[in-house]
Amino acid sequence: MSFVSYAECTVCGTRHDPKGLLTVCATCGQMLAVRYDLDRVKVAVTKDALLQRAPGMYRFRELTPLDDGEPPVTLGEGGTPLLELPRLAQHFGIRHLWGKDEGQNPTGSFKARGLGMAISRARTLGVRGFVIPSAGNAGGAAAVYAARAGLRCAVIVPRGTPPTAIAEAAIAGAQVFTIAGSIATAGRVAGRVAPEIGWFDLSTLKEPYRLEGKKTMGLELAEQLGWTMPDVLLYPTGGGTGLLGIPKGYEELRAMGWLTGRLPRVVAVQAEGCAPVVKAFAEGAETTAPWADPTTHAAGLRVPSPFAGRQMLRILRETGGGAVAVSERAIEDAQRLLARLEGVWTSPEGAALVAALAQMKDRGEVTADARTLLVLTGAGIKYAPPELPPPTDLTGGEEEARAQVRRALGA
User: Fold this and answer.
1) Is the pTM higher than 0.70?
2) Dihedrals φ, ψ of 40, to 5°?
3) Among 138, 235, 320, 357, which residue has the fewest nearby CB atoms (within 10 Å)?
4) What is the number of structural domains in the chain?
């Protein structure tokens, strides 16, 4: 048996049997969250026991929905480094700044966690194929883990999705479809076609297990920071699975007595061209409204109508956090800044956090002594490179080339 007690609707509270294949709440259609018998977990595992386990997200197995003996569909995801960012911290006048580098996952982004977990459970529960709408990295990860599980996968992406994400899905054997519109358009098509062909819809937060995979970021962060939490946590927000998952992990550890204190102030970061959460937060709305004409080169932020908008807004308000929108130019500048100062080529979504931190520091919303954490969700190499100066072409023979290099370097 696993340590799961039930799955609970995050809005109406209806409980669902975790032994069956779950989607959304049968009563109100909202997202479900897995609840654990945390007293049993406390007896079954200790912090010291964790130290003897191999790295990766399944070292926290008791806080996952896997049954005893259920093999995960895995490529070694999780266990990503928490990088100190001292030069970037100095640039902003902050003493403590970290980046959780999720680009070091097997598929180059944090999507490996959620899709690995969701596909593991779905395989056990008898699913034979998946349909997933994606803005990029989720589709690639779903295809890779479906291939690993020996199952079929179809990916529907908006036109203009990064070519590397499409290639990742295609090379893993998925059938990839492009469509006019946004991920919301792709989601509507996926939601209708999946039941028609007897496959499973893997749309964001329309089943409860992607959340459990993303939650492991919070479990890892707690351990990596010596069983403490940061003061401020910035998160690039599209569908928002990790924004909900990280606090869920923290809450479970607090209930077990492994963490104490308040949750970090959670800050949702979006692009100015697609900022439904920022707009709803500023207006004091209960949930998000669809964003017309979403535009941003940060594909993971191009989510005009997140399914769990109300749940994200609740987390932001309960933690005393906020929501920040940044421009395309600020994202590009921040991506270069992080690489130049720290050697980290993060995705545009991760770079948006650096741009948001600059805004917040200027407005006095992050103090110099605040322990601040950036969730860098993917590797920049999976995207088209930003505009950069061309390399210097060396001409003539080797001696002339040597002289040119010396002159260019001021030597």
Assistant:
1) yes
2) -65, -40
3) 320
4) 1
